[in-house]
């Protein structure tokens, strides 16, 4: 996929702030420290478009990025970070669930899991929700460069058992591993929607 343009459009803190032009959207979901911003920047071959932070749990809004003037990436708040208040965690959960449940423009959910660890109960719960609600989704195992190929194979096999119903692709934002495969899945979904 050749990315000719990628721009940050807006941060939405509630439903009335969502984009309204009807373009398809690819949503990125995952734990606070799983590398969503790094993955988005890597897919778009842009440094710093999606802000990365050393403090997980910083993104408290849905951030919309317009790609090639044709579709959006929607970066959803991370979940499961212990150091934020319960109220804040609850608000994020409500905002994300409202978006996932009600968004007609949603073409694909890209759920990120950390390839170095087995999926958490929250990862499993999100995958079950996506399956139950028939949301097209793909699972991307991030940080694939941090473990050996043998460990990565074992990790993906374990994730496939715990997260049934979606294709799992290994990804490294550092090396670009998996970039073409993720784009292939995104474009396939967009062509079928």
Question: Helices, strands, pairings?
Answer:
Layout lengths: L5 E7 L12 E6 L5 H9 L17 E6 L3 E5 L10 H17 L3 E9 L6 H12 L4 E6 L6 H14 L4 E4 L8 H14 L1
Parallel strand pairs: 2-4, 2-5, 5-6, 6-7
Antiparallel strand pairs: 1-3, 3-4
In terms of quaternary structure, the protein is single chain
Mean pLDDT: 84
- What percent of residues are in strands? 15-25%
Name the CATH superfamily classification: P-loop containing nucleotide triphosphate hydrolases
Strand order of the largest sheet: 1-3-4-2-5-6-7
At the fold tier of CATH, the topology name is Rossmann fold
How far apart lie the N and C ends? 18 Å
C-alpha Rg (nearest Å): 15 Å
Q: Look at the structure and give the CATH class.
A: Alpha Beta
Determine the fraction of residues in helical runs and give it as a percent range.
25-40%
What do you see in this structure?
It is globular and about 45 Å long. Helices cover 34% and strands 22% of the residues. The protein is of the alpha/beta class and 193 residues long. A seven-stranded mixed sheet has the order 1-3-4-2-5-6-7, sandwiched between helices. The protein has five helices and seven strands, in the order ββαββαβαβαβα. The chain has one domain: P-loop containing nucleotide triphosphate hydrolases (Rossmann fold, 3-Layer(aba) Sandwich).
